[in-house]
Amino acid sequence: MLIGVPKEIKNHEYRVGLIPGNVRQLVAHGHSVIVQKNAGTAIGLTDEQYAAAGATLVETPEEIFAKADMIVKVKEPQPHECRMLRPGQVLFTYLHLAPDPEQTELLLASGAICIAYETVTDVRGGLPLLAPMSEVAGRMSIQAGAKCLEKSYGGNGILLGGVPGTPAAKVVVIGGGVVGLNAARMAVGLEAEVTVLDKSLDRLRQIDQQYGRRVNTLYANIDTIEQAVLDADLVIGAVLVPGANAPRVVTKEMVAKMRPGSVLVDVSIDQGGCFETSHATTHAEPTYVVDGVIHYCVANMPGAVARTSTFALNNATAPFVLALADKGWQQALADDVHLRNGLNVFRGKLTHPALVEEGDARYLAADKAIA
């Protein structure tokens, strides 16, 4: 198989779909890899390293999209990239289609076979290709929130951990999944006062067993969320419904009642955001203010630590890329239900149930699509 790796073009996005080590592994299995020049240069992965691993370097993304059997990326394809996709070509990357109707329509029109990292599953019910970036984003959310709380960034001028004789900041994490657990871990490490809300009592018990009284746990409903948010200095939105739009758990009325200079960090923004006042921002302009409350809603947070993120993501995607290349997409999806769960778009049809409403004629079950 010929695998193509274009350079990422989203704002301040420096991650790359394949590291040289994974290119070498594919070449050792008899595959060919073409990589756009300077695809990894910004994070210290040089063209010389890719060439030494067996890749062929090409100048333009157009050449990659025209030749490759499978495109391996990190972020969702931008509109002109979608238009370069060919019928039957495989795209393996993050897609986050639910809040992005334009991308959805372009991918349907392309006729391509699009497999989304974020809906690939595992035997434990987890999302193994989303997890590494969720770990990064969860940890970064506290880092970003702490910076936004500084007075020079518009915050209320509070230090997360305080100092002797002063109170620590109140950090509220809504959602106890991978993002939420990593956010809580960082906030506890900085000695903030931390509260985690979740609808799963089992998850709350796990958090309590791990952290004891260092983390307060609350069952999430509209009342407990409102009380926690209004008392918070920093709120982390870490809510996920796999493949679907994130539920809006914090209303604009709640935001209007928050203390001026408080901070909201919406890590769910890739799936539409879990705060009613959220809209996606970029690393170039990461924040905006609503009713005196700072919103940090960067849609590709892990891109800020692109080298760490690239290696973490490649560690998770490598076996799936190799399976798709070795077996071909049809056999690989047939053999692995968890990879098959990643199939979102198939030759003009939507194949993930979270993307459609009942009766949508565009829907085709993934197992039927590959039959």
Automatic annotation (TrEMBL):
GO terms for molecular function: alanine dehydrogenase activity; nucleotide binding. It is an enzyme of class 1 (oxidoreductase). Its EC number is 1.4.1.1. Substrate binds at residues 15, 75. It catalyses: L-alanine + NAD(+) + H2O = pyruvate + NH4(+) + NADH + H(+). Residues 4-137 form the Alanine dehydrogenase/pyridine nucleotide transhydrogenase N-terminal domain. The active site is at residues 96, 270. Keywords: NAD, Nucleotide-binding, Oxidoreductase. InterPro entries: Ala_DH, AlaDH/PNT_N, AlaDH/PNT_NAD(H)-bd, NAD(P)-bd_dom_sf. NAD(+) binds at residues 134, 198, 203, 239-240, 267-270, 298-301. The keyword Oxidoreductase applies. GO terms for biological process: L-alanine catabolic process. GO terms for cellular component: plasma membrane. CDD domains: L-AlaDH. It comes from the Bacteria. Belongs to the AlaDH/PNT family. NCBIfam families: alaDH. This is Alanine dehydrogenase. It comes from Nitrospirillum amazonense.
